Amino acid sequence: NGIEWQQENEILIASGNAKASRDGVNVEAEVLRAYYKKKPGGGADLYRLDAVGGVKIYSGTDSITGRTAVYDFEQAILRVDGKKVVYKTGKDSITATQQMEYWERQQMAVARGNAVAVHEGKTVRADILKALFRKKKYGQSEVYVVEAFDNVLIVSEQDRVRADRGIYKVDSGIATLTGNITITRED
After folding, report:
1. Cα R_g (the chain), whole angstroms
2. What is the pLDDT along the chain (187 residues), one digit of tens a residue?
3. How far, in Å, are 13, 14, 57, 80, 110 from residue 52 at the CA level?
4. CA distances (Å), 49 to each of 53, 63, 118, 137, 146, in order?
């Protein structure tokens, strides 16, 4: 529908199927608000981007969708909110019903509210999940550790494991669990 430039407030507002891109990352939403600071020598630096309504953020290898999002360029932290936030990278996915944060410098995501991580037929569920990422050969991210907090449920083809907390190491397939552990094999 247009772009509004509020020079006195140092903000650009794009509304109606708004799109932005930077360094191979694309953001789409109903409304985008880009906050900037003027540089002393001229020009400007973006320091925050807000997205509202049908948010989709994607690159060539990763994507995340939700209702709203805020990206802090200075801290390199993305926060996406919504009733169904979905992050996908390769064959791995993480979902949440409240919010997800992606801490770029730490290569970490935190999913809050009925969080679910899926990797090759194994599912880890908990109130809160923390996923640690590493870069693969061609720049694609992969999850290598998932930490689960409160109401943990791990499901594989044969087993269902419940616990208060857990750490799942993707490479080895080993889950270390603590607190009120129950293991059910098949029936």
Report:
1. 19
2. 899 989 889 999 999 999 999 888 899 999 999 999 888 888 888 899 999 999 999 988 789 999 999 999 999 999 999 999 999 877 788 999 999 999 989 999 999 999 999 888 789 999 999 999 888 777 677 788 999 999 999 988 888 999 999 999 988 888 899 999 999 998 7
3. 11, 11, 12, 10, 20
4. 14, 17, 29, 30, 28
Number of Cα atoms under 13 Å in the Cβ half of residue 58:
13
Q: Which residues contact 74 (CB under 8 A, 6 or more apart)?
A: 47
The full length of the chain comes to 187
Asked if 45 and 56 count as a contact pair (C-beta separation under 8 A), the reply is: no
Exposure on the CB side of residue 89, measured as CA atoms within 13 A: 20
DSSP state of 1: -
For the record, the structure tokens of 107 come out as 């290569």
121 torsion bin: left (phi>0), alpha (psi -120 to 50), beta (else):
left
As beta bridge partners, residue 79 has 70, 101
Distance CA 77, CA 176 (A): 28
